[in-house]
Amino acid sequence: MNNVQYNLKFEKLVAELELGELISKPKAISGGLLHRMYAIETTHAKYAVKALNPQIMSRPTAMQNYIQSEKIANLAANFIHAQPAKVINGSSMQILDNQCYLIFDWIDGKSLELHEVTETHCEHMGMILADIHKTDFSQLHIPKFQLDFSKETDWNYYLVKGQKENSDWTILLADNIQKLYEWSAQAKNASVILASNTVISHRDLEPKNVMWQQDNPIIIDWESAGYINPMHDLVETAMYWSVDHTGNVDKGRFLAFIDGYRSRVGNLNANWRMVLENGFAGKLDWLEYSLKRSLWIECTDDEEQQMGTSQVTWTIEALKQYEDMISDVENWLGS
């Protein structure tokens, strides 16, 4: 077990950053599966504060990645409705007693639940994704990291460790371990083919990362921003916006998203099978991270360990479902 823990000191934080005085206890709000998010009200204003996971921030490249992603968000905000973190004392990143924070002005809006997303929303978001892809980020001089295609995940290592610890997911992992190696090989092959064509994008433009004020969307949570193959980003994001609560993709919403994107950029040409097989990569990365959390390899506390355990099961099922839908989606894209 790693002993890197959250060290939250909100009263001291708002005092040092001159954000006023707390007028109520910080309230935990939904902030995704990586970090912790709080609503904070002071004598000055209301803020959303993201306390960054100290386990993640201990990675050697994490700090630079967050600084770069906020630069991307700030530039994107000139072209679309985007919300970067507040820049205070010349920096987006606030560090207090070894705890890192991002601070945002509060948005009075709401993110859409899956059942609330319409084809109109999808078309609108397709246009916004195209606008992000068309944005010139070259002035930021963000380096393109060479992807390491030699990395092979040792799924058997996690299986053996899970069996020793009697983890809940060991039977499910064992039943699907051959598939994991097959999906990994497909993703690696597709990644090599698609790696030469990249743009800078948000890379996690799910419904939860868009706040709506009536019909106006504001793009939040830019922490994953960076280089990505544009057609992979398009298809993956279209799926985010067209999936229902059972994990099935609605064809009408999916094609509305694609049409919205196409209306901004013109005809699309891609090897859709390679694009779709590349879609295994992010899910497999998430599975490995969830396994590390579940097994206390990379984890801060019991809550995170339990989240990792539940996400292992969810992600394996999602991978199986994704494989089943690839042929249908490929046909939609080719029609």
From TrEMBL:
Residues 27-263 form the Aminoglycoside phosphotransferase domain. Pfam families: APH (PF01636). Keywords: Transferase. Gene3D superfamilies: 3.90.1200.10. Signal peptide: none annotated. The keyword Secreted does not apply. The keyword Transferase applies. One of its GO terms (molecular function) is transferase activity. SUPFAM superfamilies: Protein kinase-like (PK-like) (SSF56112). This is Aminoglycoside phosphotransferase.
